[in-house]
Give the backbone structure.
Amino acid sequence: MYDKKFMEEAIRLANECFETGKGGPFGAVVVKDGEIVGRGRNMVTVHNDPTAHAEVQAIRDACQNLNTFQLDGCELYASSEPCPMCLGAIYWARPKAIYYGAPCSVAADAGFDDVYIYEQLGKPISEYDIVAEQHDAEIAEETFERWKNFQDRIEY
């Protein structure tokens, strides 16, 4: 259930991030049983890592702290609507809820291209602005067949 204090912490992290020159205006926290178990700030420019978004950083922190790769029973609070990459990471982490502050249109107005990426994802892969070609499917598919028969796999 939504709790304003956690959104305020995500927004505080977002402000702190850019005010200290350590990234963009994004912050996120992961909450479990009323306690913050993970924090993240946008660290893209600090780490030269385009995947170092606040939500991804918070998920990584929470998973390390909880010693798990899934965030069952957790909630994620983000200062802004998650971009497509972060939304994918959130779905892989499987929290029970996402609460966000500013919509992606506000981030777009501030110069972030989330809307552009959402538009790309709405197209068939053959129409993406970045070339996307499939090759060697038969070889790659063999890996999945081997995975299905691998007795010691950990499901996720």
About this structure: The longest strand covers residues 35-41. Helices lie at 4-19, 44-47, 54-66, 84-93, 104-109, 114-121, 137-149.
